[in-house]
Amino acid sequence: MRTRFLQGLDELKQKLLRMGGMAEQAVSRAMDAYRTGDTAVCTRVTEGEYAINSLEREIDELALDLLAMQQPMAVDLRFIIAVVKINADLERVGDQAVNISERVVDLSRLPAVELPVDIPRMADLASEMVRNALTSFIQGDAAMARRVLNRDNELDTMNRDISHTLMNWMSENPSMVQQAMDGIIISRNLERIGDHATNIAEDVIFWVRGADVRHGHVPQG
Amino acid sequence: MGVGIDVRGLRAWFGKFEALHDISMHIRPNCATAIIGPSGCGKSTFIRCLNRMHETVPDAGVSGQVLVGQRDIYGNGSSAVEVRRRIGMVFQKPNPFPTMSIYDNVAAGLKLNGVRNRRLVDEAVERSLRSSALWDEVKDVLKKKSGASLSGGQQQRLCIARALAVEPEVLLMDEPASALDPISTSKIEELIFSLKEHYTVVIVTHNMQQAARVADYTGFFLLGSLIEYDETKKIFTTPGDKRTEDYITGRFG
């Protein structure tokens, strides 16, 4: 057995899970800030981004070392490729959390208003997708990953509905345009988080089954 | 041009020990096919059955069919000498004839086959040395230097030229680069890539990266059985059999 190589794979997995935890926490904090209007939490999200970026580089470096030094094949090669891609998606999830917290800071500077949309519900779904995509990665469960893909349309619909509602609301409340715009942007950020969860789930399927299911592709055989 | 090889129900023995069990596979013409597997899995025995080298071992036996093109090399009236002319072989350790010049090494097979015309021999020597990517390095010392005076990598390319001189249809290579440094290995691998334009190449290798680099198709042998045979890309990214995956990911045993 290639002990050092297997240790390297395990280390890669552990680091990616830490990265996943940090990205999930960033989204959770950004949404707490949205609910409570506590901008101090936004600062923590921004500060957390440095750690996420640093870990992203660490994971890429370890993956590159394993590829160069161990020349992995088959399931191991697919695993490392999947980790590199998931790593990039998690970093982008962290970026979206920062974008949301920036909108929250913006909202805090404007007159308070209750937007007629349920953004926290959308955030719950986006977070659940990220969590389930990561769980499917931990468990190597392609069926679970497949279920994540099925939720993406739901999130897209929520985003469209929220945008539509807020556009109408804006025309009726011209003095609240900025708040409505912030709501639309947060909704779009959450929709993007869902897209990243979808990418992660697709990478899990690639790793476990060797099948490329991106862009609705149906593999042969 | 290379020809396809149809192996049907091939079994091979050393005395009472059955080393190959009922192997059937189609080796495609003008492709490089790699045979991989752990030591003792029967991969060398397998390629030695493809040019009737196996039967040179005392107590060795073979059954089944090996059709090279349309002809069964184990069929009635097939001669081992003729088979080995059509199916050349290169071994792990370069084995040039040490006392012969470079020229004579390449010409040896032709002369054994009765070719005496000087011009034809000269042409065949140059063509073979060019095909084995050795010509530029040895053209000025063809008759002055012995085969043994060349470096290991050059000696192996000389052996390939010697095999090519008799214009075989198939080239069998048993670990052709395992005794060579990375630069010589890379030259042999590039050579395999260009040789398949004219020949069918079957290569046994322990080096899986090498199989992945040079072969169009790969067969995985284990305990004398062919476990999986598919496009190389498929074998090394998404093998269908757990045993293949365990072997190529180093989780074997």
- The dominant shape of chain B is globular
Can you give the mean pLDDT of chain B? 93
Strand content of chain A: under 5%
Structural class of chain B: alpha/beta
**Count of DSSP-assigned helices of chain B:** 10
**Low-confidence regions of chain B:** none
User: What is the CATH class name of chain A?
Assistant: Mainly Alpha
Strand content of chain B: 25-35%
Q: Topology as H/E string of chain A?
A: HHHHHH
Give the end-to-end Cα distance of chain A, rounded to a whole number of Å: 31 Å
In quaternary terms, these chains amount to heterodimer
Low-confidence segments of chain A: none
Given the helix and strand composition of chain A, which structural class is it?
mainly alpha
Q: What is the highest CATH level, the class of the domain at 5-99 and 171-248 in chain B?
A: Alpha Beta
What is the third-level CATH name, the topology of the domain at 5-99 and 171-248 in chain B? Answer: Rossmann fold
What form of chain A results from the Cα inertia axes?
Answer: elongated
Report the biggest beta sheet of chain B as strand number plus sense, adding barrel if it closes.
Answer: 6 strands, mixed
Gyration radius of chain B, in Å: 18 Å
Number of helices of chain A: 6
Description of the molecule:
The complex is a heterodimer of chains A (221) and B (253). Chain A is built from six helices and no strands. Chain A is mostly helical. Chain A has a single domain (3-216), classed as Phosphate transport system protein phou homolog 2, domain 2 (Methane Monooxygenase Hydroxylase, Chain G, domain 1). In chain A, helix 1 (3-36) packs antiparallel against helix 2. Chain A is elongated and about 65 Å long. Chain A starts with a helix and ends in a 12-residue tail after the last helix. Chain B has helices at 43-49, 80-86, 102-112, 118-131, 135-138, 152-165, 182-195, 208-214, 232-237, 242-248, and strands at residues 5-14, 17-27, 32-36, 60-68, 71-72, 87-90, 170-174, 200-204, 217-222, 225-231. The N and C termini of chain B lie far apart (41 Å). Chain B is of the alpha/beta class. In chain B, strands 6-7-8-3-9-10 form a six-stranded mixed β-sheet, with helices on both faces. Chain B contains ten helices and ten strands. Chain B has a domain at 5-99 and 171-248: Rossmann fold.
